[in-house]
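Researcher: Sequence recovery benchmark, item below. Answer with residues only.
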């Protein structure tokens, strides 16, 4: 069956020193408990190697927040999937709404990034989600379906390695969480969309995380829903205790 996962997305926060301290604190708190989920932290590129050195891989997985759609070469400032992999990272967030919105990432680029991540043995945490206008005009199911279908040229074997994160853009960093019912409805919809292409077994085995103002106080209710398999956590992942409060929601 599919895994439960709580993943932190640090975004563009923490200096290297602060990031290593946060990772150390997360690692120490995980040593004291037996989480009922996999725990992952996705950190800025500059922090990957140093954070990898302080995390115990059996307690917490490491991920990046993005990677290039190109293999290598003259792309100044870019970081490739193989570079990410070489730091010890196992995951990479792709298609975050902030990348789609502020950096214009489109479906074609995201498919290329996903393919390169998979070729390099990284697990993509592929983000989808509608903006407020799409929630309000009722097109949200179609919008998210289109974002998932952008990956439908992947082989079943490849698709089965992907984690999906549903992050309604209106809930990110706003303190305005989707209700557990809204999350459940969308997660069930996503699973149906996956099933229509890849069949029930792959759909049932795909972990679908919720992201958007998830915190210790609302995680339990969200994670109790049958199709919500964990969370992708922004702000609350920047404090080890509150991140752990979300991990503990699975206990
Ligand atoms: P917040 O938890 O800060 O709303 O961010 C969610 C997110 O974007 C995680 O990727």
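Model:
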């Amino acid at each position: 069956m599919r895994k439960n996962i709580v993943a932190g997305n640090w975004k563009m926060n923490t200096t290297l020193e602060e990031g290593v301290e946060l990772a150390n604190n997360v690692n120490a708190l995980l040593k004291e408990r037996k989480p009922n989920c996999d725990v992952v932290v996705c950190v800025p590129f500059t922090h990957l190697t140093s954070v990898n050195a302080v995390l115990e891989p059996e307690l917490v997985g490491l991920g990046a927040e993005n990677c290039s759609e190109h293999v290598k070469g003259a792309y100044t400032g870019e970081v490739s999937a193989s570079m990410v992999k070489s730091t010890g990272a196992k995951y990479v967030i792709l298609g975050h709404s902030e990348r789609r919105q502020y950096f214009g990432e489109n479906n074609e680029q995201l498919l290329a990034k996903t393919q390169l991540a998979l070729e390099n043995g990284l697990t993509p945490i592929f983000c989808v989600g509608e903006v407020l206008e799409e929630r309000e005009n009722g097109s949200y199911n179609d919008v998210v379906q289109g974002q998932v279908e952008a990956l439908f040229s992947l082989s079943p074997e490849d698709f089965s390695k992907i984690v999906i994160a549903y992050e309604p853009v209106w809930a990110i960093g706003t303190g305005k969480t989707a209700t557990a019912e809204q999350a459940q409805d969308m997660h069930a919809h996503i699973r149906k969309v996956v099933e229509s292409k890849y069949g029930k077994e792959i759909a049932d085995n795909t972990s679908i995380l919720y992201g958007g103002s998830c915190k210790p106080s609302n995680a339990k209710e969200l994670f109790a829903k049958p199709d919500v398999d964990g969370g992708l956590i922004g702000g609350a992942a920047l404090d080890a205790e509150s991140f752990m409060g979300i991990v503990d929601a699975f206990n």
